[in-house]
Structures are given as C-alpha cells and as structure tokens.
Amino acid sequence: MKRYFLLIIACGIYMGSKAQTVDDTIPNIPEPKPVIRVGYGPVEIEPQYPGGMDEFYKYLDNNIVYPKKALREKVQGKVFITFIVGKDGCLTNIRAVRSPSVELSNECVRVLDDCRFIPGSQLGKPVRVQYTVPIMFDSEHPSEHHQIPKAW
After folding, report:
1. Taking 50 as the threshold, does the pLDDT of residue 64 lie above it?
2. Beta strands 129-137; 120-122: pairing state
3. DSSP calls for 5-22
4. For the chain, which terminal residue's Cβ has fewer other Cβ atoms within 10 angstroms, N or C?
5. Domain boundaries, the chain
6. 131, 60 contact by CB (below 8 A)
7. Residue 74 DSSP symbol
8. Is residue 134 within 8 Å of 147, Cβ to Cβ?
9. Which of helix, strand or coil describes residue 69?
10. Which letter does DSSP use for residue 109 in this model?
11. Tens-digit pLDDT profile for residues 35-59
C-alpha cells in the first residue's frame, strides 16, 4: 500500500515538473501595425460650427422656441444633446441623453435637425464625429440657451 502511495506521489511530482517547463523559443510574430481610429475616436481636426461655438449658441438662441407647456410649468435645466457630425457636415442620430422634460428635448432635436457643421477630418479626409452639447433652458430668461463650456 505504501508503495502505491509513493508511486502516485512520485508520478504527481514528475508530471508537475513537466507541466512547469518553459519553452524558450520565441515564435515569429509579426510587428503589429498602427491602428488609426476613425469615426468616433480622436480626430486631427474637430468639427466646427461656422463662426465657432459662440455662433452656434447664437443660432440656438435665435431658433429655439421655449415650449409653452414647459414655460407654463417652469420646467428648466440643461438638456444634453448628442449627435454625429457626418462627413458632409449634416447632423445625424440627434437625441437627448439627459433632459428635464420631453418637450425641451424635442425642441432641441427640432432645431439641430436643420443645423450644419464643418466636418472633422483625419489624415485629410472627412470623418464622422460624435458630439455632446449642453443646452440651457431657464424659465426666467426663455430666449437664452447658451451654456458655453470653459474649454471653448
């Protein structure tokens, strides 16, 4: 019985030592090629509204109509709108990611649907770029919708 036990232990040690051997040969793996992220990754030239972000918020101030229901109920706050600036500068996939009301979201989407940007580019070619912008609604100042981030 002791012999079988010692034999099993010896086999286990032998197999364990074989499993831990290291193959010192390095396989011939080709060098990875650099990946350039186009679409929603970093771009060389960001999309711009003609005239800059100040003009963009002036466009919003001139075109957004505070929804009567939201104004009557004094609904206010920031609406965060995300959209994709296409290769031709048109905005697609416009949607609110956060909003105090559906009425405010719908108004932002309506106004941005007619908006055009100068497209972004990567390696000299136009690319699609995703943007998110805050649009402010204040029932005390219903015609002002600008919320210019400090980075702009």
Report:
1. yes
2. unpaired
3. HHHHHHHHHHHHHHHT--
4. N
5. 53-137
6. no
7. T
8. yes
9. helix
10. H
11. 333 445 566 888 999 999 889 989 9
Entry pTM: 0.65
Cross-strand partners of 96: 81
Give residue for tokens 């995300």.
Answer: 82
Q: Which residue has the tokens 């609904």?
A: 75
Quote the DSSP letter at residue 116: B
Cα distances from 94 to residues 74, 75, 81, 89, 133, in angstroms, run 25, 22, 7, 13, 11
- Which among 73, 139, 66 is positioned nearest to 104, based on CA atoms? 66
Other beta carbons within 10 angstroms of residue 93's beta carbon come to 10
Residues 136 and 110: beta-carbon distance below 8 Å: no
Which CATH number applies to 53-137: 3.40.50.300, 3.10.105.10, 3.30.2420.10, 3.40.50.970? Answer: 3.30.2420.10
CB 112 within 8 A of CB 102: no
Torsion angles phi and psi, residue 104, rounded to 5:
-65, -40
Range with top average pLDDT, 20-24, 70-74, 98-102: 98-102
